[in-house]
Amino acid sequence: MHLLLIGSGGREHAMAWKLAQTPGVTRVSIAPGNPGMLHEDKLTPVAIEATDIESLLDFARNESVHLTIVGPEAPLVAGIVDTFTAQGLRIFGPQKSAAQLEGSKSFAKDFMARNNIPTASYATFSEVAPALEYIHEQGAPIVIKADGLAAGKGVVVAQTEAEACAAVESMLAGQFGEAGAQVVIEGFLAGEEASFIAVVSGRDAMALASSQDHKARDEGDLGPNTGGMGAYSPAPVVTDSVHQHVMRDIVQPTIDALVDEGMPFTGFLYVGLMIDEKNQARVVEYNVRLGDPETQPLMMRLQSDLLALLDHAVDGTLPDAQINWHAGSAIGIVMAAGEYPAGSSQGKPITGIEEAESNGECKVFQAGTRLEADQLVTAGGRVLCVTSAADSLAKAKAQAEAGASSISWDGCRYRRDIGHRAL
């Protein structure tokens, strides 16, 4: 059985590693993949970009691919699922219309408003002057978001009105290109964040284990917002009662509304939550794919068959699926460029991955890497995710930090307090 996984990051490395463990899978092709996948059993990177939909379609058709799984958001927003489905090919992910939940912040906020999904107050602007006026009316703290896809960097949690105004001016001046042609300004939500991800098939949803991402670059949750500096699972803030509340009041109304509005959803629905002191959850954002770096610890904890779960979703038999988790905890520590998130690291030799993995306590998933004359070098902002699972979060954290301390390149950085809220 041959699978095609689209993407090149740490999320895709972890997914491919897990998919290859399914009995009967002979090959997992990853387009375009990364060098970390070259050393994994059954994994084969393929030189096709994630947004080259026609080439991906030809590959899936010519190579008799059983199922295509879409990792990142860009091809989903571009309509890859619609294209594959029209050609009779099996693919896991939402169609273009539903992918707007991530592709456009204003679309998502309007969707939540008309369907009574709990979220922050908001307003949308395409011109600077009225946006600045709104900021002064609302005061700070306040949240500024680029409307479109900005690789996890298009969000500023402004602590002052001046910071908010600067963010609006920068985004509308073209900081993120077309993605920032509109901005969404949201009320600040207090509480603790959590990542709630479900596999969805029409009106059916099956929740994955809870997790918590760390967006701030620096320890103590300080510094600029990033795509994620680490994650752990489970997240204690998602209690059984919170889980039930989120499924009842957020996930189910979301997927029912998508069906009712003619956008039936199949895929991973990621709901970024803010949970207040009364254990009430509100939606910070929707994503239409697995989170990165949440995927890495989730794949470490997942004990049941990932492919079987996805097959059930595509076939419309999700209630028949089984899902089992390691009873302990898992953690992923992102090792990033010193310049991240403002810049990336390019061409710096990376050492120590084999040492980090030598005792079997860590798994290193690659993201921003490339090969230069057989030497692994940096090629991005978030370069690696050092992941570990254990009976307790404290032990998993100690193992992952020991692994990370073995790895180095000129200018690397990582947080040493991932999981601090749970600990």
Write the layout of secondary structure elements.
Elements: E1 2-7, H1 10-19, E2 27-32, E3 43-45, H2 53-62, E4 67-70, H3 73-77, H4 80-86, E5 91-92, H5 96-103, H6 105-114, E6 122-125, H7 128-138, E7 142-146, E8 155-158, H8 161-172, E9 183-187, E10 192-201, E11 204-207, E12 212-213, E13 216-218, E14 222-225, E15 230-233, H9 240-260, E16 266-275, E17 281-287, H10 295-301, H11 306-315, E18 329-337, E19 345-349, H12 353-357, E20 363-366, E21 369-372, E22 375-380, E23 382-390, H13 393-406, E24 412-413
Q: Can you characterise this structure?
A:
The protein is α+β, with helices and mostly antiparallel strands and 423 residues long. The chain folds into four domains: 2-93, Rossmann fold (3-Layer(aba) Sandwich); 127-181, Dna Ligase, domain 1 (2-Layer Sandwich), CATH 3.30.1490.20; 192-320, D-amino Acid Aminotransferase, Chain A, domain 1 (2-Layer Sandwich); 329-414, Glycinamide Ribonucleotide Synthetase, Chain A, domain 4 (Alpha-Beta Complex). 31% of the residues lie in helices and 29% in strands. It contains 13 helices and 24 strands. Strands 12, 15, 18, 20, 23 and 24 form a six-stranded antiparallel β-sheet that branches. It has a five-stranded parallel β-sheet with strand order 3-2-1-4-5. The chain has a four-stranded antiparallel β-sheet with strand order 6-9-7-8, with helices on both faces. A hairpin with a 2-residue loop joins β10 and β11 (204-207). α1 packs parallel to α10 (295-301), α5 packs across α6 and α7 packs antiparallel against α8. The longest helix has 21 residues, at 240-260. It is globular. The termini are far apart. The model has no long low-confidence stretch (mean pLDDT 96).
